[in-house]
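Changelog excerpt

This revision adds worked examples to the README so contributors can see how folded entries look when concatenated. The first example is reproduced verbatim below.
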Amino acid sequence: MKRIAVLTGAGISAESGISTFRDANGLWENHDIMEVASPEGWRNNPQLVLNFYNQRRRQLKEVQPNAAHYFLKDLEEKYEVTIITQNVDDLHERAGSSKIIHLHGELLKVRSEKNENLVQLWTEDLNLGDLAPDGAQLRPHIVWFGEMVPKMEEAIEVVCNADVLLVIGTSLQVYPAASLLNFLPNGKPIYVIDPNSVSVPNNPSIKVIQKKATEGVKELNL
């Protein structure tokens, strides 16, 4: 069975109504990125960070997966599909995809600020005083700027063994995620779907489809 690796970014969720931080009206407009998405920001003002992610968590309950999410789920009928997502939402899960690697963490999980392995589900607001089993304050289970990306090695292995790579809704400007293109075996096809102009390597195996995710997936020739 053909193996398809899929790298998704904020663009696929944007069509469900989740803002992308690189847009002019994005999530981060009223905050310096480092205030709400870095260990330093957490140490300086944990309440601000908690408020920020509580707002994201509430918004997530108001949106639904879109046609692109369901398209990827339906691919599993013919192919072995693994989704590697930079998104922290659960829209791929809700659409029914079965193999998902979250590179940058998950909005509906929290963890101990002292032990990154103490992770638990969390669907409501997170507050100061909410403690992990080890007694430490719980923090969002998000990979912040300056932190290691623990699932990166797993993602690299998936791409190394893939027959096709789909890149959907990502600017390919966030590393190390953007480097995953380099691990697909030579000559294997890469499809890049994004409505914006995306800088891609000069590679004849790469086909760019400059459309939104829900429209671009219809042009895939797998």
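The second example, added in the same revision:
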Amino acid sequence: MMSDEHRRQLSVFAAAVRSSPHNLVSRSALDELEERHIPESVGLAALLPTGTLQQRLIDVGSGGGFPGIIIAIVRPDIQVTLLDARKKKTEFLEAVARELDLDVTVLRGRAEDLVRSEHGGSYDLVTARAVAPLDRLLPWTLPFLRPGGMLYAVKGERWQEELEDAAVVLRRLRGRVVATPPEINSITPGAPRTVIVTRAPQ
């Protein structure tokens, strides 16, 4: 349930994105913040599992904060880490997290490097929105997951073709598709187009 405080924080976040001197998102994305990008991220947050124990999530390619900052706002039950390789974007994420008093961790680096660090195999959930095709995205994201953890990849209209292209990579990384956009949308109509993949034990 969205509270008044959540709405206030989302409004402050949108204003911060608009007022940033950096090109955090495209001009067309700025025009669609409240109509598309924020609702999509809220919809993704609603897809994430709930539980009694706090889950650890890493948002790969956080960019201007979609969806990581929004997940941190509307799902305080999840411990959120934001990852981006660009200095201007991680500085923005740190600043807006302070302004909103969000308990998040911000990492600067390349996912393909950090998965080989202590961060590898230590997260319950990974999110990635408009980062890369699945055949490239899977090696950057699945290794962050503990066995049984889940990747939530928000994709475009070519998601099915991307899945077919990524079949070999998926097998190599012990990934298994849990749900695809048609299945998700039949249960959660407002959810973004998402492919959910779990990581099997070795």
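Reviewer comment on example two: The radius of gyration is 16 Å. The CA atoms of residues 134 and 162 lie 6 Å apart.
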